[in-house]
């Protein structure tokens, strides 16, 4: 099977690249072995929450100069600020077309999203059902917040959230209450705790009569509030519509809170991206896994998957976006760390004793979080020092950044995936027009 672009990995990096390639008319396929990190994420798109030295970032794009000084090898510094901005603008517009409204602040600041721990995390884009607390005055417009769970739901404890939230000085004058909604259906589900997870609850609340009963109980339990915070238990693709309906039924402004996995807010993003990609004619080989590749003349010639052992997949350009340790894009062995498909060169790996900080909560990143594939300015990896002309990397597989401590996970994944797609598109266009690269440069 021959493609223009073949993408290994179906996370936010791989899908961003795939959608952009499919938009440009490239014959594209994605091979996705399993669930991506989106199933565990908040569903908000982090751009840059902290600099590598731990300093809090309020205006992410203004912080790029400091990032360049502190971590010149950071993926953002490789691709440049304007490419990051273009990619995030593209993502926001593309997702809006899929019906997922992602909002940023007008003044180019991060906003804060509430965590189940009652703390705040800085982020750049949040879904319309997630209240964006302003960076400098998070309590703005709020005098009464109700934190509501579902009776017996173990994945969200509103008392814990309330306890910590009330300790934040700006919330000293905000009344914070907690409540639990009861429904007969929940009582039955609670008998088996494995069946009382967000995804199971979402199936119940899809039934409009049950949503009406839920709304009635919510009004009784809450009384009055400026903001009602509920765990994210509403639908996958259609969750935002369900919440709109619930807001109409109750008159409350509702804020969804991502809780323990599976994260419906993250899954909502993935579902929307996959639908968009498929609508553009893209192919996804879901549940298949790339096992190895063959190289010829400094290029990746073909790859082999678990399900297509003897039938190689061939493409002009390849992207590897298999994630970090979490998604098996990187593997730690007793004394070594490897990229398991192609054995790509990694950035310097310290001795095993220094893979992590001994203080788990150290403000400094754990070194293993920054481990990854070494890439050049075009995001091309190498093998034994030799760059591979038609292979690129994107997302969590890349080295020199910590998505969690720096709060930049999805931002890096989207912008590097988009950056790679633009290069693939440019190559493809050149090939169609049959203009040699050297000649094109001379003309330019
Ligand atoms: C628990 C958790 C919570 C997070 N929360 C947030 C958040 O709230 N906001 C935010 O911005 N960022 C968050 N991040 C970071 C962010 O989600 C990740 O950095 C980003 O999603 C990485 O995307 P990716 O596409 O590079 O990799 P992944 O999402 O890890 O996707 C990699 C994909 O490649 C597939 N794969 C692996 N090996 C193969 C193979 N051999 N063949 C085929 N497919 C393969 C995997 O199955 C997976 O589908 C979080 C990360 C984690 C781990």
UniProtKB/TrEMBL annotation:
Catalytic activity: a quinone + sn-glycerol 3-phosphate = dihydroxyacetone phosphate + a quinol
Main enzyme class: oxidoreductase
GO cellular component labels: glycerol-3-phosphate dehydrogenase (FAD) complex
GO biological process, one term: glycerol catabolic process
Keywords, comma-separated and alphabetical: Flavoprotein, FMN, Oxidoreductase
SUPFAM superfamilies for the chain: FAD/NAD(P)-binding domain
Pathway given in the UniProt record: Polyol metabolism; glycerol degradation via glycerol kinase pathway; glycerone phosphate from sn-glycerol 3-phosphate (anaerobic route): step 1/1
Stored NCBIfam families: glycerol3P_GlpB, PRK05329.1-1, PRK05329.1-2, PRK05329.1-3
Role according to the record: Conversion of glycerol 3-phosphate to dihydroxyacetone. Uses fumarate or nitrate as electron acceptor.
Family affiliation: Belongs to the anaerobic G-3-P dehydrogenase subunit B family.
Protein name: Anaerobic glycerol-3-phosphate dehydrogenase subunit B
Source species of the chain: Photobacterium swingsii
Name of the gene: glpB
